[in-house]
């Protein structure tokens, strides 16, 4: 009997076995855990761990991996002493605590997986709070203003709002708001509904992705929290520096194509 790859594949297919379950597992390095955690607000510089470290699913190749920690002025606050640990598949760097003041910090990493040679990269943010009080993200009252085009409402000197209405090809209306819309902690709200007003009930997940190409930051990825049917919210210091930011919204729907929307805006202090 003639044996071919195609027939072997057919047999496996008929048996319901996928190739990936037979071939040895080689993967790119995906982050599993972070110290400090993404979006964490640390009480003080002293409370900050000595090292920023990220643990991966695969061993990173030391000669082709990097990690840096920068403040909101794009200055490094680490000691440029990258350590790659085979033991726990982690990458870490020590912090120069003398440079840590209350503010937003961005950790930017890139690793090459020893396992499959693929490069993965990402960015995440954490904050050091002012004084000893936990920074309260002040949520201003939610006026239901009718907004057509992306616009910035300067309601007073403190708070502005970015608001964008989008209608997709398959008639889903998205409204995306950022408050207070400045560098640092912001609240991001997404509401979705169909033209006729009914809620979009088959949403599985909503992801936000932030990139600042001028400063080479990103992607900073966040999963939004469901607050109601079709409504999602997220708070964090993703806009960790001033300048031009690209935001991508991905709405995963059960049984339908993802909704992908991407747009840019400028962020000031
Ligand atoms: Cu890979």
Describe the structure.
- By secondary structure, the chain is mainly β.
- The chain folds into two domains: 31-128, Immunoglobulin-like (Sandwich); 151-267, Immunoglobulin-like, CATH 2.60.40.
- Helices cover 4% and strands 48% of the residues.
- The chain has one helix and 18 strands.
- The strands form four sheets. The chain has a six-stranded antiparallel sheet with strand order 9-10-11-12-16-15, with no helix packed on it.
- Mean pLDDT is 86; it is low at 8-23 and 133-149.
- Bound molecules: copper (II) ion.
- Residues 27-28, 113, 116, 118 line the site of copper (II) ion.
What's this, in brief?
The chain has 269 residues and is mostly beta strands.
Topology record:
Layout: H1 5-14, E1 31-35, E2 41-42, E3 51-56, E4 66-70, E5 83-85, E6 90-94, E7 103-112, E8 119-128, E9 151-154, E10 160-167, E11 172-179, E12 184-194, E13 203-212, E14 217-223, E15 225-228, E16 231-239, E17 243-253, E18 256-267
The structure holds copper (II) ion.
